[in-house]
Write a structure and sequence with these properties.
With 160 residues, the chain is an alpha+beta fold. The termini are far apart. The radius of gyration is 29 Å and the shape is elongated. It contains six helices and three strands. The relative contact order is 0.10. It has a three-stranded antiparallel sheet with strand order 1-3-2, covered by helices on one side.
Length: 160
């Protein structure tokens, strides 16, 4: 009788890629999450770098190249990755543009940056609310100080 193994044995280092749990705290859109996951899958685990083309990413995540480009820019803004332009030298000695080099940044930096952004947004919202309250008090005070019969509107009503 042959022994049955319900799951094939796999080397976890070769067949899987790590995705940090903290990624859910960053408010990524589904497209950003998909592109980030693909870059994590492609990265060299020692250097944390990879260099897939927009076309390659697009084909693998089933998004258009322009959409991939938009998500890459967003991931850079959120400080999850950095992008560097590379150049190659052809056999004839010509310098050409190479593929982009993506570096996956430590997740802690992105979390710290997100927290700073949220604090800044909260402070701006508090300042907006204080200004709104002050404006409300000023407009209510000016209406209460105005005496009937002295305004232009009151003069029109007095002379029909």
């Amino acid at each position: 009788m042959r022994k049955y193994y319900p799951y094939p044995t796999r080397d976890p280092i070769k067949n899987y890629f790590p995705l940090p749990n903290e990624i859910r705290m960053l408010g990524l859109t589904p497209g950003e999450f998909t592109v980030y996951s693909y870059l994590m899958q492609c990265e060299d685990r020692k250097t944390h770098q990879c260099y897939p083309s927009y076309r390659n990413i697009s084909e693998n995540v089933h998004l258009s190249k322009n959409t991939v480009r938009k998500h890459i820019c967003s991931l850079v803004e959120k400080r999850l990755i950095t992008v560097e332009h590379t150049t190659i030298v052809t056999k004839s000695g010509q310098k050409r543009n190479g593929t982009l080099l993506y570096t996956i940044r430590p997740i802690e930096e992105a979390i710290r940056y997100r927290a700073e952004q949220q604090m800044k947004e909260a402070e701006e919202e508090q300042a907006r609310q204080r200004a709104q309250k002050k404006l409300t008090r000023l407009t209510q005070g000016s209406v209460a100080q105005r005496e009937p019969g002295t305004g232009a509107d009151d003069r029109k009503e007095a002379n029909p």
